Amino acid sequence: MNKPTLVILAAGVGSRYGGLKQLDTFTPQGDTILDFSIYDAIQAGFGKVVFIIRKSIEEDFKAFFNKKLEGKIKVEYVFQEIENIPDKFKDNNREKPWGTGHALLMAKNAVHENFAVINADDFYGKEAFEVMAKSLNKIDENSCNFNMMGYVLKNTISDYGFVSRGECKVDSKGFLTGITERTHIEKVNGELKFKDENGHLIAISEDTTVSMNFFGFTPKYFEISEALFEAFLEHNYKESKAEFFIPLVVNHVIVHKLATMEILKSDARWFGVTYKQDKEYVTSEIQKLKDKNVYPENLW
To answer: Whole-prediction pTM value?
Structure first.
């Protein structure tokens, strides 16, 4: 059994954050949030890291990570660009890539073992990587037994604006039965609400299980996703803002019973930076973890 691979979604532009938050640092030692995820993954037994980035940030990423990760874990880079689609769909007016589902497809030729996928700018916690690695190590690489880390919605909200989350429906055995991408969830007068397709704000329970894009897949995912992306483009390639999200793929395989997805639970604290104002809180939380010796002062 091969060690699982960690695939990192790092091609985002960070428009709400105002800059390349993937490489923003949060400690006096110059650690990014991603440094902690990779450190946790290595400790948990992952064997390779695949960064999904854009060509325009390749030099910055390699300068930042290659030296510190050398000899610690295998590293590969793949690229998500707008034009990375079948030729027949290139007659479009896109200005931004096609979303997380498209990004993950870019890793197809680099990943041949069970893998986890994470966002570059989310702090998932040491225990979450341990739970994920343990699960991936048990799954048959030829199966469609997938999983994801489930988080409680109230623990994933920013105080400074809206966030995007995958709302999960879970059965009594702890398996996902459906996932709905909520692209706008915010706190309104102390109550959590999401914006529906008509722009109306609808209340949502603070204890809702949500996806933070921390999924575990077998290589079979790529076959399923590739076919779905082609079908998506057939209908949407002229749409300038249509996006192909990983939860769309997940929802399809669950609803059509092509795969199972177990919800993994951990007590790990999630935190992330959607807005510049989130940085102060995340910096202090990371320092607390270092003070408790969850992490060494110098990761590398």
So the answer is: 0.90
Q: Give the tens place of pLDDT for each residue, 153-195.
A: 988 888 888 988 989 999 999 999 999 889 899 999 889 999 9
Structure tokens at 72: 């610690």
88's CB contacts (< 8 A; 6+ apart) are none
CA quadruple 28, 31, 37, 41: dihedral positive or negative?
A: negative
Q: Cα–Cα distances in Å, from 180 out to 29, 125, 138?
A: 38, 24, 28
Q: What pLDDT shows up at residue 13? A: 57
Q: Token pair for residue 62? A: 């390699």
Q: Return the pLDDT at 77.
A: 97
Q: Which of 99, 62, 98 is nearest to 77 (CA)?
A: 62
Burial class (CB in 10 A: 0-12, 13-18, 19+), 213: buried
Longest dimension (CA), the chain: 55
